[in-house]
Amino acid sequence: MFEGSQDLPRGTLELMILKVLSLDPMHGWGIIQRIRHLSKDVFQVNQGSLYPALQRLKKKGWIRSEWRVTENKRRARYYALTDSGERELAEERGAWERSTTAVGWILQAES
Amino acid sequence: MSRFRSLGEWLRGLVGGARAEAELKEEFDFHLDQEIAANVRSGMTPEEARRQALLAFGGTDWYGERVRDERSGRPLEDLIRDLRMGFRNLRKRPVFALVGVLTLALGVGMSTTMFTLVDAIILHPLPGSNTDGMVYLRQESEDGRMWISPTSQLIEILRDHSSSFSRIEAYSRNPYNVTIGGEPFRLYGAASSEGFFDFLGVRPAQGRGFLPGDGPGGTGPVVVLSHRLWVERFGEDPSVVGRTMVIEGLTFEVIGVLPQSFRVHTPVEIGFWMLDESVPGITPEELSPEAAIARLTEGVSVEAARDELNAILVNNPLDRLADFEWVGLVLTPGDLIDSDLKKALFILQAGALLVLLIGCGNLANLLLAQGEARGPEMAVRASLGARRGRLIRQLLAESLVLGALGGFLGLFLTLWALDSLPLFMPTGYSGFSLDRNAFLFAMALSIGAVLLSGILPALKASKKDLNSVIKGGTTLPQGFLRRGGVRRLLVTSEVAMAFVLLVSAGLLLKSFAGLRGMDTGFDPDGLLTMRLELPEEQYGNHETQVAFVSQLGDRISRGFPPTLGTATLASGFVDNLEAAIGALVPEGTSPDGAENRVFFTRGVEPDFFEALGLPILQGQAFSQGDGLGDEPLVIINERIARQYFPGVDPVGRRFQLREETYRVEGVSGNLDLPDLVKNDIGDLQLFFPLRQDEGSGITVIMRVSGSRSDAVDAMRRLIHDVDPALPILNIAMVNDLLSESLNQERSNALLMALFAFTALLLGAIGIYGVVAYSVSRQIREIGIRLALGASKQRVVTKVVLGSMKTVGVGLVLGVAGAVALGGTLSGLLHEVPSRDPWVFLIVLIGIAGASLLSTWIPARRAAGPSPIRSLNSE
Lengths: 111, 874
Known about the structure:
The structure holds two protein chains of two kinds.
Chain A: E1 2-3, H1 12-23, E2 26-27, H2 28-38, E3 44-45, H3 47-60, E4 63-69, E5 75-81, H4 83-108
Antiparallel strand pairs in A: 1-3, 2-5, 4-5
Chain B: H1 2-15, H2 17-41, H3 46-57, H4 60-71, H5 75-92, H6 94-123, E1 134-140, E2 147-148, H7 152-161, E3 165-180, E4 183-192, H8 196-200, E5 206-207, E6 222-225, H9 227-233, E7 244-247, E8 250-257, E9 272-275, E10 291-296, H10 302-315, H11 319-324, E11 327-331, H12 333-336, H13 339-373, H14 375-383, H15 388-419, H16 436-462, H17 466-472, H18 485-516, E12 527-533, H19 542-559, E13 565-570, E14 578-586, E15 596-604, H20 608-612, E16 616-619, E17 633-637, H21 638-644, E18 654-657, E19 660-668, H22 674-677, E20 685-689, E21 697-704, H23 708-722, E22 729-733, H24 734-740, H25 743-777, H26 779-787, H27 792-825, H28 837-862, H29 867-872
Parallel strand pairs in B: 4-9, 6-8, 15-20, 17-19
Antiparallel strand pairs in B: 1-2, 1-10, 1-11, 3-4, 3-7, 3-10, 5-8, 6-9, 7-8, 12-21, 12-22, 13-21, 14-15, 14-18, 16-19, 17-20, 18-19
């Protein structure tokens, strides 16, 4: 699923996609580049995971897609966050932060 | 084909499937191009950039499957995609598709044809749409073997006294001389009251039904045509309303045409309907109803109505009823149908369904083989990410396409079969049409059939994993039929079902052949009969009737040319039979305990016995002088002599029957008619001198030795010398009448034989398919055996024996099934036990032979010319 980092909790990829799309509408290739860039090359999202994930998010109504023309005049499918996607992102982000903080506490615990 | 395809494209466009596929590809292409461009920017050569990009992307098919899986939010789109794919896959295998579709079509066609008959005759025996609470009124003899319709007189009484029925309607049926467009012929017509069609809820397909004011007092004579008559005699003229036809010399105006589906239960087809008051030469009161149809008052049960009816009969003793000791009965529509016919139809329906089941077995076999052959494809697709559910759905979609095609072809077969039905069925049971019920039935059958035969193969095929397929290659099944447990089961059940069907067909054929070839006691060759009905006005009493008979008899004996043949008169011979029910008490014995029996009676001229070749065993035939006023004489048949006068010479003795004393003049041979024999009636026969026998109907019997038409013409002249106005009815050869009387048995046997042979053929094809397949799967094993020196014969024997074991199990099951089900046929068989060992044996040999042939052919091919070639095929 991810090169370099195997065992991320379920839903992490979706969360990252939502986050990336909240910055700017983006096409599939761009999403991969953006995630790699923002994670400082730690996460290499595989195409085989990305497109089904995009399909899942679309089905849930969190993102929508439309065809746009890129800067070099190619047609590409752009994905963008919907309002409910925005809410979902906020919620998931809260949950993520709470759980990482909690995991952090556990890891820092000293006997 | 192109039309089908463009339809598919249109449907796909409708749900956006095609666009989604194209967009998916464009999206992937864009992704790949971006990757390549990025690689080039980072300094790779274009070729290397492309290679790396493809490597990273890893092949679009897999994502495609996954994305499609995730996307599947539109069931209609999925279904259409699956169906289209199924259609494409079938086109790649035309032979498989053709065999599958034909097999299904045969089964569906036969079953739907039978269903149409069952539906029309048994489930909807009453014409019209408004049949709630409707019953036929009929009176039966105590033993239920004979029945009559109520007389007009009784119907009037019931209308006045019964509160069980809201309405009672009746119709009468008679043959009439009609002329249409200048061409004269004889045809059955019916007469009813004005509200009859409204009562039944039947609306004419063209024109109108009867209205108040129709008939002699108003519009003059009007007639409503049957669909058949309109087609055959009026050339389907769309403006037939207003045209005329002549019935018994009276011109009638056509006011309407009945729908094709309209049918009443008569043994002959009714060509037209008129009002009771319009029937030429007879008053409405004189018409004798063929059937009375009544509607139960709401809330009244059939049983309550029956009780009330019987009470009315007791309080209003009617001559005919008291005399014949009939019991009043109310029947539900279903009871009206001859129980043998009902039984036959159900059995034939079951037979047709068995054929369909056998077809399903074959189809399942084909699909299993297909599944094996497509194992690699399925495994690769599965490993590329297609989920099992999707694969199963797709395989089932293929079956569905097969089912739809087979179903439609089956419907066409049904249409054709219903058209050619008169070839198989007794007259009066034609004019059936495919209706909505039959259509739904056919569709349900097809879908059920493909699901039944498709689900197991789909489950099996989709379970393949790549490893086993790649490792296993094409040599998976080891040993003949060993791994194919399912296939063996299919063959076994096909053989068992075919056995049951063939035995049924064999029994029915044997029974029919027995009746057809039975000894009638007389020689029917060259015998011809015609019917005279003496009109009431001229021949209202016994004296005038006897005068006519004497005149005609004398004229025949003096004037009928011996070169043309011989002729005699009787009250009835093959048809128009009369029966007396009562206790026969020989003189000098006590009437106590004498049992009521049914005696078939015929009034005959002295030369009747000689003309028919019916022997006089004791005593003598009547003489010319035995007439009105003399002592009543009788000739009894051999069975009566044996049962009532055991050990004594009955000639000269007297007996009493229904308050009349007869003197036995002689004993004749038994005169047996197949349609009476098959119903176990008519074994006791009495012959009276025609001139002592009161009645207005006369049957002229001729044994024609020369030209038939010359003989008929000569007889017509003699009859018209006596009464120029007397119509001559029902000219028919006795052999034809005898043959027609077995129409039901013939059609039962023929239809069952048709089903059985189809079953045998399908079963043989099924066995062939399974053996050929299993042989092809172990071609290597066979090759090695041959290479190691096994003789071809040994290999063939091994294959054949292995398969015949499976067939043998099926045969055993078939015998058990046929023995268990034998009872259901027994009512339709005459003098053939339902477990007739000869029939069983012949069927056993037949199936074993057919099976042997269908295993031997593929087995021989396996041990073909060169073992090397067998090995090379790997």
